[in-house]
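Worked Example 4.2. Consider the chain below.
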Amino acid sequence: MGELKEIDIFIFNTLRNVLYEKLPEYKDVLDLQGDSIYSSEYNIYLFMNEFASYLVSRIIEDRTSVFTKKSFDYINLLGQSDNCEVLNIVNVGVLEILYTEEADNREWIKRNLSEKLQPYFLAWSKYYR
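Applying the procedure from the previous section yields the following structure tokens:
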């Protein structure tokens, strides 16, 4: 079981570090909050849910902000992966949150997702209206 936990930790650290590299201002936000409550658990899904929820608040505030643009660059970068686990993390960890919390902006969000991620995003319509 230890080997599997090591894989979880590796995925968590990799995706978190890329996020912090692409969006250092998000790390600053977490630092001000006393860091993410999920970071010590190495649960990448919850960590990405937290990121997506913060992104939703920024989309509502100003969807043309640099933070929002860089966030979609990060999401689309992860979406280029051929790794099924990474794609699932993006789908469930980010796209589901964006779909459910931003019903008014779904078309705008879809346009900002890569062609590869758009079908994942739209597939959430089967579960949420």
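The helical segments are 2-22, 24-32, 44-62, 66-79, 84-101, 106-112, 118-123. The two ends are 39 Å apart (CA to CA). Compare this with Example 4.1 before moving on.
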